[in-house]
Each structure stands twice: as C-alpha cells, then as structure tokens.
Amino acid sequence: MRISLFVPCFVDQIYPQVAWSVVRVLEELGHQVDFPEGQSCCGQPPFNTGYWDEARTAARVALAAFRDSEVVVGPSGSCVAMMKVFYPQLFKGDSQELEARELAAKTHEFSSFLVNTLGVTDLGAKFEGKVTFHDGCHGLRELGVKKEPRALLANVRGLELLEMAEAESCCGFGGTFAVKFPTISTAMDEVKCASILETGADVVVSNDSSCLMQIRGMLDKQKSTIRSLHLAEVLASR
Amino acid sequence: MSDGKTIILNRIREALRENPAPRPHASHTSSDQEETPRDHTPREWLPKVGERLDEQIDLFARQSEGLKTEFHRCGTMEDARAILSVLVAEGAWKKIATHTTPDTSALLEKNRAEILKTDTGYQIDDLESCDAGITGCECLVAQTGAILVSAPSAGGRALSVLPPHHIIIARTSQMVPDLTAALELAKERYGNKFPSFLSFITGPSRTGDIERILVLGAHGPKRLTVLLLED
Amino acid sequence: MTTFASEFKKMAGRYTADLTHRAFIKKALSGYYQKRDDSKASFQSWQGARDLAAETKYEAVNHLDRYLVEFAEKIEARGAKIFWAPSAREARDYILGVARENGVRSIIKSKTMTSEEIHLNDALEKEGYGVFESDLGEYIVQLRKEPPYHLVFPAMHLTRGQISDLFQKELGSAPTDSPEELTMIARRVMRRKYCEADMGISGANFAVAETGMISITENEGNARLTTSLPRIHVAILGIEKVLPRLEDLALFLPMLATAGAGQQMTCYNTMYGGPRQPGEIDGPEQMHVVLLDNRRTELLADAEQRDTLGCIRCGACLNVCPIFKNVGGYSYGTTYQGPIGSVITPHLRGLQDWKHLSAASSLCGACTEACPVKIDLHHHLLQNRRNAAAAKPVMIEKISFLGFAWLMSHPSIYHLAAKLGRVFQPLHPIVNGTFLDPLIAWTRSRAFPNLAPTSFHEQWKKSRK
Lengths: 238, 231, 465
What we know:
- Helices cover 52% and strands 15% of the residues of chain A.
- By secondary structure, chain A is of the alpha/beta class.
- The mean pLDDT of chain A is 97.
- By secondary structure, chain C is an alpha/beta fold.
C-alpha cells in the first residue's frame, strides 16, 4: 500500500524521531511511505480558539497536500481527529466540502490504522520496561481509539503494561487552553503525573505527542526520571 | 396585550420554524438515519427481569437488601402480625397511623398501640407524633425494588412519609416486573382520573449530602418494612 | 476592571492552588464513580438507553409547543393553575403575588435549581417571608449564605467539621463529627418547618404531557413533605422539562438516578397531578405550576445546540469534568456549574460576558461521554468559541491567527521561521520563567521542550532525495 505520512507541525519541529518511527514500522510491514512536503499545520489552534476562517486557510494547505494520497496516516489522535472529524464541519457549505470529506475518510490515526486497516498487532518489537499508557482525549473520544494501542503493546517483547487509574483523564494540554488557562491546565497535568507515578512505571507512552509534551513538561519540572515515548517509538524498538 | 402563554408559545414556534436540529446519532447501530419512529418501551435496555413470579419476588428481595428495605415474605396474616408485634415491642410504639383496607385492618387486629386513622383527614401534629405508618400500595416493582403508592392506596400523601417507620402490606399478586408495567397498571386502573399523588418509594429516606456518606432517615422514614402476603 | 472572566480566573487560581480542597472533591467523587458504574452495569445496555433517552428528548424539544400545551391543559383540568413566565422577573412576581394573596407567612422549599436561577429566595426574603431550604445540602449552604456548590450535591465542598461548626453557631447544637448526628439535627429543625409552613415551593425533574403530571426525584423525602403538608404548592420548572408519555419515566427515572447519584432509583420519585382532588384526604388546596422561559427559547432557536434543552440536570458532566474537579463549583459564578453551565450560560446571560467558560476547557469530551441524554457538550463549547470570535474577535488573537494562517499557507516561509526559531532558541534559558519569557504562560509551571536540531521536513528531504 502507498501510505502518505501526515506529520503534525510540532512533531515535525520537536519530535522528528516519532515520524521516523512511523516510517520504519510501516516500511517494515512492506508498505511504501511518502511524505507530501507541502503540508504544514492542520489548523487546529485557530479552529479550537474559534477562528474558523483562519483555520480553513491552514486546512486548505492540507487538502492540497494530500489530494493525491490513497491513505493518510498520522501519529496523533488530536491532529487526525481535526481532519477526520472536524474538517467536514469546518468546510460545511464551502466549495471544498467534498474534498474535506474525502480527506476525512482516508485519514487514519497510526495505531488504529495498524490494527483496524492493516490487521496487524504484532510488529516484532522488543522493549524492556514497565510502561503505562496515556489515552489522548481526541484519539479516545473523537476517534474511539482505546483497544488498539493496548493490543499493539501487548505484543511487544519485554514490555509490561501497568494501567494507571487516570488513563482516560485529560492531561490538560488542550492546545491554546494550556496557555490561556495555565493554572487549570497545570492542575490537570499534576493529576495525570501523580497517576503515572502511582503505577511505578519507568515509561509513559501515548499515541499523541502533544499530550506527551504537556506530561514531559511537568515530569521535567518535577525532575522525574520517568521517560516519555510515543507509541510509534516503542513499536519501532528492536 | 399578549399574555405569557402567547408570548412563550410564539417564541417556541418562531424558534422551531424551518430550523431543524440534527437528529441524535445512535451509538449502538450502524445505520445513520433512522426515520421510522422507534418503540418507546425501554424494556430492552433496562435491567433484566425474569418472567416468573418467584424470580420477580427473589429479585425484589435482593434489591430490598441493597436498599436497606426490610422485606418479609409472610405465609399467613398471622405471620405478618407476629412481625408487627415484634416491631411494636422493640420500638415501644405508642401510636400507629394507618388507613382502612381489609389488610391493614387484619394486620392491626390484635395490636394494642393507639391507632390514628387518616381515612377522613388528620391533624398534622397528630400524624407527626406517630411511631409508624402502615399503608397499602398500588404494586411492587421487582426490577428496582420500588413500591408504587398513591393517594388512595396509601392513605393520602403524608402517611407514608411523615412517621419515622413506614410499613407496607402487599400481596404477591401486586408484584409487577418493571417500571413500565407499574406505569401501565396505573394508567389502566385510573384512566384519566389519576390521583393527585403517585410515588415510587425505593428504600427508606436517605441522604449523602455530608461528605457523600450514606445516612438513612434524612427527612422521611428511617425504616421501611414490606410485608408480602400470599393471595 | 472586574469582569466575569477575570473573576473566574482569580477564583480558579485560588481553588487550583488549594490542594486540600482538590483532594477532598476527588475523594467525595470516588464513591460516586464506583456506584455509577455498578448501576450502569445493571442495564442490559446503557448505550441503548442513552440513545432512546436522546431520541425521546429530541422529540419533546422539537415539538415543545405541542407537548407544553398538552401538559398545561391536562393539569389545569384537575385544578392546578399554570403560569407562563417569559422572564425571571415575571416568575418571581407571580410567586410573590400568590404568597401575598393567600396571607402566607412561612415558606418551605425543596431543592430547585430553577429558583436559584431566578434568585427567588432573595425576592421572597426581601418581602419579609421566612424561606427555609429543606434539602440537607441546600439547608447547609443556605445557613452559610452561599449558593449551591454543585447542582446536585450543593454542600459537597464542606467537611463534617465545618458543618458541625455551622450548626453549633446557627442552631446551638452540640459539636459532633458524625454525619448521622448532623443529619438528625437538621431533621429535627426541619420537621417543625414542614408542619408550620403554609407554602411549599418545589422544582420538577419532568413534566409528563400525556397525563398532566410533574415528577420530582429525590432521596431525602423533603420534597414529599414540602408538597404534602403546606396548603399551597408552587412548582417552578423550565419549559424544557416536558416528556411526551408517562411511560417515558420508566426510562428517565433510573437513568437520572444512575447518572446523577449512582443509584438504580432514588428513594422517592413522585408524580403530582394537581392539588388535592375530591375524595382525597390531604395535599395542598392550591397547586401553581410556573413554566419558565427566561431565554430558554434562545437556546431553542439555536438548532446546533438545541439538544442542551434535553438536559435533565443530573450533574454527571460535572462529576467527570477535570476542570470542575480542579476549579470547584464556585469559580464558575453561574447557577449551573460544570460543562453544561459553560455551554448554556452564554445563551442565558450573554455570549461575550460568559464566553470565557467555553474557552476554559481542554475539550477532552469526558462530559459528552457521561451525558445520559447525549448532549454534544464539548463540541458546543467549540461552537460557542466560534460564535464569540465571529461576533467580536479578540484583536490580539485575530492578528496572531491571521499571521499563523498566512505562515502555514506559505510553507517555505514557515520553514524559514522555524529555522530562525532554532537560531534564537539558545537564548531562551536566559529569560526562561521570567516576565520577559514569551512562553511564560507555559514555562511558569512546566518545562518547554527544545526544538529538534533539524525538522522532519529537512531530514526527509536530505535522506530520501
């Protein structure tokens, strides 16, 4: 299958290794990965803040970038939800509505794509350590991704999954919310990190790098030695 | 000058005119559009209830336990009287309120406490000073352990809530499987001449308003006893 | 200048900093989660029940005129008086009028958020009436002269020690740390009030069109006493409370109990169809039903958010909301707290004044998932943000996002900007966490990650071409 990679802007700038892990996993499965270079940001920051005209301007870039793609796969529940769930709303009544719907239909979150589209759960990965998994809210509730990452982690040799009590609780990122209401966002982050700590895990894993940025921010502030990794990085480990 | 009714109804009609809201999307089916009206009976979704009477009585008994309702199956009226006399003795009851039905009368036959009957009305303070209230009911609901009472079947509105101990006397023929059946029964019985008061009583009065800790007997009865007689 | 938004931020800051309070609320809710899940599990299908509940409310709300008229005609035929109140003031005036005309002295109330919404107690007390809240939690916050903290659990923020102190001061009772004893103190006080009151004021959870009844859900029995003993019963309810059929209660009563309190059924679910009827021995001589609009029709006119009128005020969305759990009930400054309050308050009290509540959410969607009638709560928060920005954009945001959108639609300049960011990044530690830090909103409490030495874009270009 020819798979177009959708790399969210902050993954592009801050966590390129996450994108490479996705490439490695998909290529090892024998698929051909391309990266449409015209892509930038999906438009979620202005969309979530209420500036839909500006969001559409950014989103049109994505529509153009992925126009010829067969399937689009991205390593972020949040940014994929933007395309899959919110583009059709954002473009309702717009001349590009149909195109937005087409992109929504062919775009997939990474773990969901592996399990539900490709039907793979064992990637031959090896990762020694105790891991706890954080469900990014958009992946969990907009896309219904819950079992998929766990099915994938269950087949990683050497990995022990320790569920945290607050796995489904929001980390408090929420895009511009994190800087508009830093005290509330931080309080949520504290709840999340306390729950991570409680499990005794060495690594916190998620399918969303934006959540991990928020969680990492708190763990670093607390000088915690717990590592944070994207699911793709774990699945690409040998 | 338009009155409140006209103003509000006009606002509603204006708001709804040619302005359809998106239909709620079903989470349990795959079909996007459901144009046909659905069956409004919630039975298939609500907690399951067995068809046989003994299953329903068992379920009612289990629910009662969880609710802290004191549920007794009584073979005969004599058994019911024995339970009552223990309660009267234990609580040193001086005054019991009730209303007249064949079963309440039979239950109180050999009782020695003072009786207040609400059949033709009562003084509030008089009723308030009673140690217990004994009533009949419309039906028992196996599904939830609820008892449906009404003004005519329970001696008015207050008899079943003002005294600190409420005793209900019922017959096995009054058991219905679920809330739907209870409401259907009320409709059949009263048609469009409903009493002004119908209530599902599900356990003794309770509150969790202080630190979410359960306390029985907030404002209503601290204890609820159900005496179930065979027909 | 103090605005609703600045007040919210101030209060939210204070409450989030209060770790004891946060832990207390978390503990108070932990028992609820367990009981709620047990009760849900007893359903053959909770999701199926939600679908049916949403459908039923959809039908009721989208034919609101028809069902309201049916309800009113049926209950009027049995002697109740209906008052249609377009606004809060008209509702208050009517109830004051009923009290005045009947020489009322003492008023007992059972829990009604609708009366909080119209500030009924203030109006009655100003006219000299003694008004007593009978719900234990409401009574406690009334003694403290506070509004309810939570629309279902009004006093959930208070410890037994605080309540004991309060009772000692206000009622002269002996100190105790037993919730049971405290409850009994309130029970004894309230018993006298029920017996003496000549007017009882209640809310309603549902109004049944088919049979002309209101339905009240409670656990304590205070609503039953409020509606049984006084000679006048006034019920106040929003126009959205109507359900088409009596049998709909078979669905809504257990759902409300499950979502609201983690019970399969609450203790009392009572249906009132009028004042005392011929042949009945007790109950009020008069029953007045106040149907309140108070801008609910504005919500109705917004087809996108019309489903919010299906709300049964169970409080489930508050109980799961990470914002509520951290900022608490008082930060909102609204009658209805939590996600549902954040969604509807802008409609009821003005979008620009209350849009900050829609912004104060990470849009995690826990509320929508918990809602028993499937109100699309977190998406409505997004819509409020969109509507607020469209009606009156915040200049700094508008300019930022115009710039952002322009940058994102000019990839080569965007990549150049990112490179520039890498050039300046080494300077960040110098200002990190200070007022000069452009990222201060983030870095005050969290570490900010470094940009990668090169972007994925650059790395891909280099390695794959």
